[in-house]
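Example 3.2
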Amino acid sequence: MNNILFVASECAPFIKTGGLADVVGSLPQALKQYEKQEVRVILPLYDEMDEKWKSQLDYLGSFDVELGWRTQEAHIFTLTYDQIIYYFISNDYYFSRKGIYGYYDDGERFVFFSHAVIEALKHIDYKPQILHGHDWQAGITIALANILQPVQDMKTVFTIHNIKYQGVMPLDIYEDFFNLGREHISGMEWDGMLNCLKSALFHADKITTVSPSYAEEIRNPYYSEGLHPMLIDRKADLVGVINGIDTREYNPSSDPALFVNYRSARSKKKENRMKLQKKIGLSFEEDRPLYVIISRLVEQKGLHLIQHILDEFLEQDIQFIVLGTGDAEFEGYFSDLAHRYPDKAAALISFDEQLARQLYASADFFIMPSKFEPCGLSQLIALQYKAVPIVRETGGLKDTISPYNMLTGEGNGFSFANYNAHDLLNVLNYSLEIYNNPSEWQKLYKNVTKSQFSWKDSAHQYVTIYESLSRELVYG
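Structure, written as tokens:
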């Protein structure tokens, strides 16, 4: 039996800002299908967490956490959800705030959390053989687990969800945050700064990231955000495992958010689209394909490419809807676009989970031309709701979407390689050509309905990683 403890800053359904929460929420559910794997999860207890969950918490106790020269008190709570045990670390000073990120002392907050996780292992009735940290917020946990060995022979796994975010702080705060000898600074320092992500890369027994292509890309200076020397050095311990999605949660045949539930019937998708367009005030045109973007409105998502060519593409007989919030530049651009094309475009500058699902269910095409994308969950959700993805060939987009080929009838979407606006326009025009060819569209749509990215295969790869570490313990 492998006892595995996930360490993360967010987890669905308790607290969520993005895909990290979906992964930390759904992967343990997939792993529990394996008899010899028991997974538990430990998280910060944020004030933002819904009262629905807070009311179910059981108090386990409190303990002191030494943070450099000062002491902070931590409280630990637990609850069981869907047969998984979750622990929550509470501290009013660090976590009783609006939102969960974006504070000047985020580094200190998650260094405290890492210390508290290590200390909590003395106070819970669970001794993990494997500590699995997720993203920079858990990076120091991995380092401390290696240095302090709070559980004898415990192994560590660290998953990079997005290397862009590293948890970087001035190096001179080391003594303020750690009661450790200075010999450990080198394992946490990078480019003259204390770097939480680098700390995990240095100390972890195994490193994973969220797609095979991204595992290759981050060894390249263009994608690595400066950490490629470390990743090249750890190449033998780095594995790319594509994320899955919870197909119970994202299921158009049972999703209560939809106007009309369906399995794969295109007529039901059109019925959803008609009701959605009535709801948002966009005219319903049955034969016009609907292209959508559901995204954070930031540069990473390839929106500068969209800006260059969308006016030209809207000359075609199509409709377009964007849903999301983000940079003022993109919010303003899409709002202006919708004003100029009132019968063809709509800009929903907000984020609403129900509306997002209604858009997936209504769309013919889902556009995701990311500059980089470690894995991406949106294109997988689009496939579940039978919307054809149009993506750039990077990271997990490259690993999950294969371009449609008219000669062979293979492919579950459309893709382009170069980060170039007219390459995107060409593939958008090609997608419209296929849509207007009923026999080709039927082949492509059939391929989309067969595409499955549940957690089953990915969970099996993680089990293989965990068991390889367990064998190391047995055989040395």
